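Weekly puzzle thread! Below is a chain. First person to post its structure in token form gets bragging rights.
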Amino acid sequence: APESFAGDHAVAQLLKSDVQVVCIATPDDRHFAAAKAALLARKHVLIEKPSVLRLAELDELAQLGRDNGVLAKVVYHKLLDPDHKKLRTFVVDGVLQHVNNGYCSLLEPKSIAGSQFAEWITGRNPGTYVAVHYIKLIDFTFGLKLKRVACTGQRGIVGPADGTTWDSTQLRLVYEHADGREAAFDIHTSWVTPDNFPGYVEQEVQFRFDNGVWNGHSRKRGVECTVEEATPLRLKNTINNHYNASVLEPWGERAQRGYGVEVIERFMREVAAVEFGGPAGERDQRLAAARALEYNDLAADRQVVAAVEAMEAILARHADGTPDCVVHVNDSAGGLVLRPPGRGEAEVLYRPLV
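Winning reply:
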């Protein structure tokens, strides 16, 4: 019968058991230690977003997965949102061309910060907690190179107005296309929406392209899309993606179905394919194929973690009295370089190239 483990030694007890897969859904800043222990114990690992908070931690976990012959992956379940799958399908198929800018918002109720997660949010921010969904969506869907990260936020509801616990954050990411043109995205998050707001979570996205606009609002359950010379005749303006839309799955499969397959089930199928999908002598090939899936492999999470590390550093400087810092990606001083406003001394957060 399945066993349950609790208490201070629960992780160690779990890893001594015969389980083959470990899923980690701890607070954001506690993912790394548990994932490292599981990988050292040669367990396949799936981490709830964000994978980790530092690129150095990501490097270490990815290497441990390779060294121990197991999968090290991360859950971004919003990649399987039918609206987001349809968006990526349009981008891959060239229906929507050359994204220029975008806006994403995810606002959660006060009950999240005040009761549900109250034990761990001290010193934390809603950007790391939920903006990562959209950072990953942007990174995976558009395939751009991250250039700059800026962030600001507000305090005073969940914690002191001069403290390190943030009510709301506004993140700006600037990317570069292969042709040198830039694309900018603003991501607004909070966990202080009134509990009586008409909808548990408020989520919306807008992406603007050379030839169209994609508007999505999850609470209102609808997408409005405009494409020159295509809508409303060849393509509908208002798209229902939750019933049987034809989409390109994150793992490369073309599908037409409802909101069925969940990302955790998909990971279990990947593990099963590695361990039981053929002769033992071909396991390495199956493992390599599973690692090549960029939608969830840790090695493909670099730009997301880079944005998270930059955001964390910028907010820390803000709390210490130096707002408006900007982190530059892959500049002359290093992979992640924080530069304060004016002529303050730059801080290298991560020296290797991102």
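Puzzle host: Confirmed. Bonus trivia for everyone else. The mean pLDDT is 93.
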